[in-house]
């Protein structure tokens, strides 16, 4: 029975790092190691919590990202990343799939709203000078997130595979290809050849549904962690 009890205790300890909080020390250890109790800073200035100061733009951006994730997963069940079937997939979503148009429009408008919210969030941080010490690192993370957000929107633009998206990506990649030295190589790698086609579509699709969202999620985690460590902005 002793060996069985020790085995059960090891299993319990693997789930719960601390014993039942019947002492002040154990209660303190539980609070100090609890992730959900440490997402936010220990101290927050009252001025930083005013809605007219931060406008909840960071939280709105994260909310739109969650909406994009959920609706994007649903759309993946119906979308076929093929030049022969991509456009028909979008037509089926609008005509044959129950609530397909509603889900697609949620995804599309959430994407537009996220780009706007990220830009306004960066503008607010810059205007209130919240990028100053000790938040320089988090400001750089925010700039990278702004770039990643725009790339997520741009890669998703090609997926309907209509004339608008085809020529928008063609013009955009040609502009990038005009950069001296690295431009032509970068364009060739990005579109998977010399012209926008099947290779381009599958690469943009992979970046849009896996690569860029995963990178954004990691950067958001670092961003939130730095907020926890650096504290909220202190105001003007």
Q: Helices and strands in order, then pairings?
A:
Blueprint: H1 2-15, H2 24-33, H3 51-54, H4 57-76, H5 86-95, H6 100-127, H7 136-157, H8 163-177, H9 182-191, H10 198-230
Helix pairs in contact: 4-6, 5-6, 6-7, 7-10, 8-9
Summary, kept brief:
70% of the residues lie in helices and 0% in strands.
Which key terms come to mind for this protein?
Cytochrome Bc1 Complex, Chain C; mainly alpha
| Main beta-sheet strand count, sense and barrel state | none
Form type: globular
Count of β-strands: 0
The percentage helix is over 70%
Separation, N- and C-terminal Cα atoms: 65 Å
* CATH classification, class level: Mainly Alpha
Tell me the domain tally. 1
Fraction in beta strands: under 5%
Describe the protein's architecture and organization.
The protein is built from 10 helices and no strands. It is mostly helical. The protein has one domain (50-230): Cytochrome Bc1 Complex, Chain C (Up-down Bundle). α4 (57-76) packs antiparallel against α6 (100-127) and α7 runs antiparallel to α10 (198-230). The longest helix has 33 residues, at 198-230. It starts with a helix and ends in a 6-residue tail after the last helix. The mean pLDDT is 88.
């Amino acid at each position: 029975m002793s060996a069985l009890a020790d085995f059960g205790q090891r299993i319990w300890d693997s789930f719960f790092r601390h014993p039942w909080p019947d002492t002040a020390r154990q209660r303190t250890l539980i609070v100090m190691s609890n992730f959900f109790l440490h997402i936010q800073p220990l101290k927050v200035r009252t001025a930083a919590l005013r809605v007219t100061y931060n406008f909840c733009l960071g939280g709105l951006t994260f909310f739109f990202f969650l909406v994009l994730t959920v609706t994007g997963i649903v759309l993946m069940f119906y979308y076929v990343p093929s030049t022969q079937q991509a456009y028909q997939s979008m037509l089926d979503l609008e005509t044959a799939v129950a609530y397909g148009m509603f889900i697609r429009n949620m995804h599309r408008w959430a994407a537009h709203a996220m780009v706007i919210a990220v830009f306004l969030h960066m503008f607010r941080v810059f205007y209130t000078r919240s990028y100053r010490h000790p938040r320089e690192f988090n400001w750089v993370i925010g700039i990278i997130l702004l770039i990643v957000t725009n790339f997520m929107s741009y890669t998703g633009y090609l997926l309907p595979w209509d004339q608008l998206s085809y020529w928008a990506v063609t013009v955009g990649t040609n502009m990038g290809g005009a950069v001296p030295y690295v431009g032509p190589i970068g364009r060739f790698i990005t579109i998977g050849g010399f012209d926008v086609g099947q290779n381009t579509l599958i690469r943009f699709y992979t970046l849009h549904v896996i690569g860029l969202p995963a990178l954004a999620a990691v950067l958001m985690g670092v961003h939130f962690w730095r907020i926890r460590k650096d504290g909220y902005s202190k105001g003007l």
